[in-house]
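Teaching assistant here, posting this on the class forum so everyone can see the example we discussed in section. The complex has two components, and the goal was to see what a joint structure prediction looks like when all of them are supplied at once.
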Amino acid sequence: MKRRENHSPLAPACPIPPSKGDVIVIGHGSGGRLTADLVGRVFLPALSNPILDRLGDSAELTVGGSRILFTTDSFVVSPLRFPGGDIGSLAVHGTINDLAVAGGRPIAISASFILEEGFPIEEARRIAESMRAAADSAAVAVVAADTKVVERGKADGIFVTTSGIALAPEGLELGPERIRKGDAVLVSGPVGDHGIAVMSAREELEFETALTSDSAPLNGLVAAMLECGGRAIRCMRDPTRGGAATVLNELAKAGGVEIVVEESAVPVRDEVRAACEILGLDPLYVACEGRLVAIVEELEAEKVLAAMRAHSMGAMAARIGTVAGSGVGRVVLKTPFGTSRLLDVLPGAQLPRIC
Amino acid sequence: MKRRENHSPLAPACPIPPSKGDVIVIGHGSGGRLTADLVGRVFLPALSNPILDRLGDSAELTVGGSRILFTTDSFVVSPLRFPGGDIGSLAVHGTINDLAVAGGRPIAISASFILEEGFPIEEARRIAESMRAAADSAAVAVVAADTKVVERGKADGIFVTTSGIALAPEGLELGPERIRKGDAVLVSGPVGDHGIAVMSAREELEFETALTSDSAPLNGLVAAMLECGGRAIRCMRDPTRGGAATVLNELAKAGGVEIVVEESAVPVRDEVRAACEILGLDPLYVACEGRLVAIVEELEAEKVLAAMRAHSMGAMAARIGTVAGSGVGRVVLKTPFGTSRLLDVLPGAQLPRIC
């Protein structure tokens, strides 16, 4: 079982704590433990404030009497185009989803482009058009933009940074501090499609698959879930870098609870499973860009799951686990063989530059 | 007079209109005509909507009954540190100023970092601390952040993208459509300090100067101006890439007016003038990062100018020109010799990667 191997040959074997003389390594962009180290030891201490310190998918602010959500993400995916999307649609979906999983109704997006000298203008146009289509599908507009150019060899074609604003949900608090023992753990669809689709588009690791990325806006699905489940929905996260295993760990740690995941209940497409075995990856750590993990009060879980399945973005939603205890923040995986093991955060990157 | 030369040897000699097969050139990042071409022919047609199409320093939105401003900018300045600042403080000031010149009271900032493998972590920490200090000085916090990492040779140390939200000024409309014949043109201080300070820090063009960048937050100055001038202030812009000449052209074109600038009235430090003569640059095209240009109703202009001079960020404020006519969007420069010439937008970059 290759899937038991928690780090790929691409990732450093152990975490490197930053100290004087240390430099950035690829694993610092993994979304795993090295990323958490970098954020926790460098950026958070410098920029610390009560809102940033929460480390949510988006920040909640009060502006002129309204509660709004605010988020930002840079996108450096390589290659720029992959089955099911490109850096433009990915950037828009990523920002919409960070707002959506906090329950927000997206209002506006900004986009900033860093272009490398020599980048084809036709390609920039295609990416912009792809952003427009992605924004339209979530009924949101790109209202502010910027472009910068650097010399050849000082960037990698194009980098896109999107930020977004949403109206926070009225009368609804979502957050890991609301997680309770007995809650159900739901996922909105098969995991790992995005990561494997991007890998399949990389020249150096080409293999045959009809797989497309799951990159998609989740605001419609979230609206349907909130309409059905309301306050029974404790919190949600979108499992991007680091995959479902990493966000489950973030939720378990932030909520101070033990989450038990049934490995056999986790939806994984056959193509993803096969690719993961070849690459020595665990699908639970592979990025999604159109999925969410939700922690829902047990009593309402079946109803919410049914609502998810009734929505086009949640047709293959599944219950994958339970909040089994409190007091210790960790994730335990129950294997089909009846054994259990800790599903920890990986130190570095399984798949670099996946978003 | 070297200053009459409108393009440096670094810039392409003439504008290259984007068409099929064309690629990004350094001049597309200049803030001048090539940037306008790229935005106008590629990004705007794809992303077009009434808010983005205004091409203001920030976008105005209504969110839950409140009017807010929203802006974004990427920073790719080289070198990362220069006299008077670094990429971190520059990014924060740049975003605060885009909000401030629209009359906004900055509420929150986001920051997204693209890091190159091998970048010193100590340097990342210094940049984050510099951002914190810059944000503190404008009483605003960085509430959302992201970090991404790319392989060595795929970026240039660190790129920073900041976005910002402000509360729009109540009962106040600022915009170039409000400019009228007879209005006064004010600038808040000497022009070109930032661009020349960055150039002085570049190895290849080192020259002796004690000059520091003017990079600074303008929200305090704007608050003082609005308190004094109110609706007499027609509109403001911060002359970053492309300098004062470029923003004056933007205002003249957007307002459909002719602006006449008295060259001898434009405050320019001796060091900047000397460096510009050596480099063959015109200070009117050199970037500032802590200055603003304001168009003010003639009757209130002296009062507003006095308020600017009473503020630490406007001690050397000056009246540099007048709105001389309407119907044609252009800027005319009256030289000390009594002659006049068109002060046009440059095609490409005088100084690449200045912000």
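For the discussion questions: Chain B has two domains: 59-172, 176-342. The longest helix of chain B spans residues 121-137. Think about how each of these relates to the inputs above.
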